[in-house]
């Protein structure tokens, strides 16, 4: 269990890893495939007739406790992460684009994308419980610590692949205005899934002077164990994530969107079919749907946890969970102790919902070559559900200079986990490189609780 909760510390220390992937690039008038992934209607607004992506990668990590300054210092990160106060939240998201292409034919735009996804999330973990599990510490060692926490505490990991087929059409196009609609159908290939959810937890933590271990008693909660694929074996073996990204085809997910442009064209722009605007706005609803995990080692069961009152000392010794790496091991220990009562039969096949989000944005031309864009992502789904893949609410403002072959931008964002971040990115021809938190990681190390990085190469022509 200790490894499960420390996983995010490892990622924070050893990767340059935000929740808005490709920050600054998607809202550019040269957004291309990434703009289409954000809003399928943008395939009709592509600045090039053919856009090919060879490779693209975005790694995003954020938390609400550990700052960049803490990582580079000699501070005890475990103590900081589970300091008393707000619950622990941490997110790690990876997107890897494979060969993808967009084509613009008259009023139509089409897209074909391939993408691998990986997510590992800690959701609303009570700091007192985490402190006891990881640090062997409770806030009051003399009288014990009583916890009454209603939120569903989750540790969840997911991998899946997807193939997207997009179509967009311009339905209004005159001298000044352009309006387009689009849709994407994603074919889902679920890989691995693992979730432990602990909701409405009540219990007392106490530390016995005889052995120094922390015990829990007089406890109750609803408990969910679910796993499929390689993640049934371990949360902490990172090779399990990469081995099982693309599973068998099992699910459909859709995106729908609209876009509007107020044109800013000269005679030369019209002759060369350039797509220039004073204002570009759009909105989309993304990830409508779910995917079903089917695997020989599938497992999804709900339990009622009940640990009796063992005062004046004793109960369940949390030290028994310290070397556990898989959910099945935790489950076996608790069942053997007689602490679990099953609420339902094991479901061999189970469905997981994608994180449905509403996205809206606007890109405004201030003066020649200088733009500013605003972006908002609002999740529609509830992260506390055990069958839900998570997302974050994000607001971003991005000033940008576009010189054609070269483009540079500074995304300024705020997300619900790590707060405010400032980054930097650029595009040089088909090569792009950026981060949504590079500036705050350097200038505000104390408060910077996010790290992210993206890069890749794509090429547009005609």
Please, could you describe this protein's structure?
- The protein has one domain: Beta Barrel (Porin).
- Helices cover 14% and strands 50% of the residues.
- It has nine helices and 23 strands.
- It has a 23-stranded antiparallel beta sheet that branches.
- Strand 17 and strand 18 form a beta hairpin.
- The longest helix is centred in the first third of the chain and has 13 residues.
- It is elongated and about 80 Å long.
- The N terminus is likely disordered.
Radius of gyration over C-alpha positions, nearest whole angstrom: 24 Å
Estimated helix fraction: 10-25%
Quaternary structure state of the chains depicted: single chain
What would the principal axes of the Cα set say about the shape? elongated
Uncertain ranges? 1-19
Number of domains: 1
User: How many strand segments?
Assistant: 23
Number of helices, where a helix is a run of at least 4 consecutive DSSP H or I residues: 9
Strand content: over 45%
Q: What class, by secondary structure content? A: mainly beta
CATH topology: Porin
Distance between the termini: 55 Å
